[in-house]
Write a structure and sequence with these properties.
With about 260 residues, this protein is an alpha/beta fold. The chain is about 35% helix and about 25% strand. The chain is built from nine helices and ten strands. Strands 6-7-8-3-9-10 form a six-stranded mixed sheet, with helices on both faces. A hairpin with a 2-residue loop joins β4 and β5. α2 packs across α3. The radius of gyration is 20 Å and the shape is globular. Adenosine-5'-triphosphate (ATP) binds next to α1.
């Protein structure tokens, strides 16, 4: 890949559902090797942006270029260079991990044997070897999450979109996955990391993009955002930039409701 061509280039992206404006002009350029912490309040438009880039949502205005190609005009080939872990695992859970990963690998154009071999290797490393031939329906949340991560990487994509990728994983697995993401980024892959867990985003990301009301409210490294906003944690930066200062009063009202006794 030529470094000077951005992996992702978005210009004035707007989207609305009926009368409701969800994206209000997003401009974004991503180069290879960045881990982007993609954050924002619920409903800010994060998933919508990602789904547009994946070609799953139509009807937007503006321009979205991936690997230099306008995705409105390009065929579906660019998708074979993208991996995606959605927030809610939509696994065919009557299959075993072996069957599922072989199936997904084949969808991405791998030979069945290659997909199975790669899947087994990756599953083994993440501690799933003994469960490889058990049905996914019997797996814990963390085990399912690992299968999702493996399935998103089988075809060695250049862009990875991860939505809450560490949910359900124990502390040791989290450390392994964080290292894996860093190594992949160092190889030149671009990773979009969406999460509501600010201290992880703070540590994992080389660049943080905060979306609020369908607009980019902040874009920079954690160090830059700290300097600009005079705050020491990403959680505080998030709260400041989204204008949220009601946590204490909401908590007090909630606890008052818990304690209320009907007379
Ligand atoms: N298919 C749809 N039809 C109508 N409205 C939609 C549709 N999909 C999303 N929305 C609305 O668009 C807005 C942005 O949603 P989106 O899922 O992109 O937010 P998000 O930032 O990913 O939120 P979260 O952090 O909760 O995942 C929300 O108000 C949502 O209700």
């Amino acid at each position: 890949m030529i470094d000077s061509v951005p992996v992702i280039e978005i210009k004035d992206l707007r989207m609305r559902y009926g009368a409701r404006f969800v994206l209000n002009g997003i401009d974004l350029t991503v180069h290879a090797g960045q881990i982007i912490g993609y954050i924002g309040p619920n409903g800010a438009g994060k998933s919508t942006t990602v789904k547009i880039m994946l070609g799953l949502v139509q009807g937007y205005t503006g321009e979205v270029r991936i690997f230099g190609q306008d995705i409105a005009k390009a065929g579906p080939d660019y998708k074979s260079r993208i991996g995606y872990v959605p927030e809610v695992a939509d696994l065919y859970d009557t299959l075993t991990a072996r069957e599922y990963l072989t199936f997904i690998g084949r969808l991405y154009g791998l030979e069945a044997q290659e997909a199975e071999f790669k899947g087994l290797q990756m599953a083994d490393i993440l501690g799933l070897r003994n469960a490889f031939d058990s049905r996914i329906s019997s797996y814990s949340k963390g085990m399912k999450q690992k299968v999702m991560l493996i399935s998103s990487l089988l075809h060695n994509p250049d862009i990875l979109f991860l939505d809450e990728p560490l949910s359900g994983l124990d502390a040791n697995s989290v450390m392994v996955i964080k290292e894996i993401l860093e190594l992949l980024a160092r190889q030149g892959k671009s990773i979009f990391y969406s999460s509501h867990i600010m201290d992880v985003v703070e540590k994992v990301s080389s660049r943080i993009i905060l979306l609020n009301d369908g607009r980019i409210a902040a874009d920079g490294s954690f160090e830059e955002l700290k300097e600009q906003n005079l705050e020491s944690s990403l959680e505080d930066i998030f709260t400041q930039l989204t204008g949220f200062d009601e946590h204490r009063s909401l908590a007090e009202r909630f606890v008052a409701a818990v304690n209320e006794v009907r007379s």
